[in-house]
Write the structure tokens for this entry.
Amino acid sequence: MKQAIETSITPSTIDRSFTEEVKKMPGGERVLDCFACGVCSGSCPTRFAMDYSPMQVVRMIQLGLKEKALSTSTIWLCASCQACTTRCPRGIEIPLLMSALKNIAISNNIQSKIEAKPKFHKLFTSIVRDYGRMHEPSLFLRLVKKTDVKALASSAFLGLRLTRKGKVRLKPSKTDKLNRFLSAYEKVNGGDTS
Amino acid sequence: MRYAYFPGCAAHHGSAHEYDLSCKAVSERLGIELVEIPDWNCCGSIDAVYASNPVLSIALAARNLALAEETDLKTVVTLCSACLYTLARANQLRGDYPELEEKVSRVLSEAGLKSGRDSAVRHYLDAVLTDVGYDKISQNVKFPLKGLKVASYYGCLLVRPPKVNHFDDPEHPHSLERLAEALGAKSVDLPDKMRCCGASLVLTEKEVVTDMVHGILVNAKNVGADCIAVACPLCHFNLDARQRDIESEFKVKFDLPILFITQLMGMAFGLQPKELGLDRNCVSPMGLLGRLKPPSDS
């Protein structure tokens, strides 16, 4: 999966506004401080599955390569485990940075190499809005419905095992008074009902 | 000792309900009073919610801490390492980003809630080990876990990142090993103890997570562990509930019980298996129980 950033970089390919946009987001402010030591990539437990390393994605941001950075599988495969953050000698919070990139990709409807992941984020949020709390069976069912119905069959044994152990509660646990909070959130955040 | 209690969804009503059960049983024995935060909601999951709705994510976390403030208890404890991360991170982001804070505090005041900025957030394990202490834990042991080889698995968010998590050392923690020894067990060193299990990818990148979890289980088997101690419902789900799938995928046999730290404590305290929800673990730990004997001098 390892590859170099093969892009000819000319003044016209550089999107400075992208670097600036990322710098303003939590996790992005120190992106220009990276001196490419590679500790993040060496510490990353999901690097083996990524097309570009976390360090390369940081480099893409520095170089203003917006499309390139947002189309990596890296941003969706970050497990947010904080191993890189703990070790980065420049104090860059890479998982937060990856979340910032996910946020830009989701708000701009940019196609993800890991198709299910943007849907996962939206569906997780929709369940929290509906019930106030997570309900694992609903999340699984909503996700397979939107992505891969075949996953129902391949997860059958796991489902049976969980049911037998009483780990599948069909009725969601709900909050009593989240509605007032959600209305307040929508009012402040400009009617976001996504 | 009294704390505001945030169980988190997985432990409260989801796949890890045995964690909540065993936590309550053990707390009673140790004299810890847990006051559940009234009407608490999803922590706000920085990993899941933040990517699509950052303000909502932080505001959800803040609502929990605001409700905790109404209980007049200064410290919130949680069972879930991922909830711990979100709640603590939300506090830090609110302090560091005035634009975000402006929106979050407006949401809270519109909703008639307190600011939520005065609560400290800690992992339940941190509270038990730091405030109650190893000595009191040892004093409660009735059935020492003698001869049991316990591998401690920290995963990612129990002690990281140091910016928002001040429990133990972020690279070389030893709390879980010390706890296992305080319970009379033999602690075996697990080289992969800090390596993430991939929980946040479990629903979308199953193959990637299968590889990650397989590596951890092989690691534990290689060091001769009888069981693995964990402190997070997501680690538990991956290592316990998915263990059979991983065994058949790689054609190996692990048969490694995965125990919540509270279950392990409860076993040593002599609490009943039912109280600790031991029957809910997918890989049965009942075989381990048979090996425990009360000390001959008691």
